[in-house]
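Notes continue from the previous slide.

Worked example: a multi-chain complex. Inputs as given:
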Amino acid sequence: MANMAHKTTIKTLYKMKQEGEKIATLTAYDASFARIIDEQGVDVILVGDSLGMVIQGHDTTIPVTVDDMIYHTRTVARQCKKALLMVDLPFMSYTSPHQAVENAARLMQEGLAQMVKLEGGALQAETVRKLSHYGVPVCAHLGLQPQSVHKQGGYRVQGKDQKSALQMIEDAVVLQDVGADALLLECVPNLLAQEISSNLSIPTIGIGAGPHCDGQVLVLHDMLGITPSAPRFTKDFLQQNGNIAEAIKNFVTAVKEGTFPEDKHCFI
Ligand code: KIV
């Protein structure tokens, strides 16, 4: 179990943004990987609902349940000594503020998470406000929203035209104003992610969102080269490094030094 005195918190993340230190984030779904990731200095561990795809073998994140998330978060929490532990609220587990509060409480009390992440723009404002009111740190998630894959018509870059870009900028500000503590940006053009990141006082963490976000996140199985046909915005860090711990250490260094993502991982 983690000692809170040594834990990364949202305050640490704010400070990192202010001081220009990049936030290195990776997903984990079990205790063994959580231990290695934590030991290699990753700042945030995300128990992502991507587990539906990389652990359970589904095509989407949609079948993942709150119970699945609690099970995996609890196993990760046992070895997450320093990193901030963030967890996804899965599909349809936050359709009202009340339902979101109940499920976030379970993820924190049973799963021992420190922060929850939810997808959606300004329509989630009341939910984020309520969670924040009850002391739940929230990471909002804009851009490609995998839980809406069928509504968004596939896994596509978002915010490419002016209207949707302006909408995303507006959504980000609304979410910050109602209490979001961080914002994840997925598959967003570089310049838009840069604009959003510089507009906000809360940190942004990007995946396929260019080098100007305040941090970077990758799905563990993608960066270890396990995922067949991994998305273009990811990088196989295991290929150049002999073992998993080295690969993760090099991911952290590349994020901190700004050598990842490169142009080939970005969308213009
Ligand atoms: O579920 C997940 O792994 C995510 C990714 C965007 C990192 O949310």
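Summary box: The mean pLDDT is 96. Residues 38 and 80 are 6 Å apart (CA to CA).
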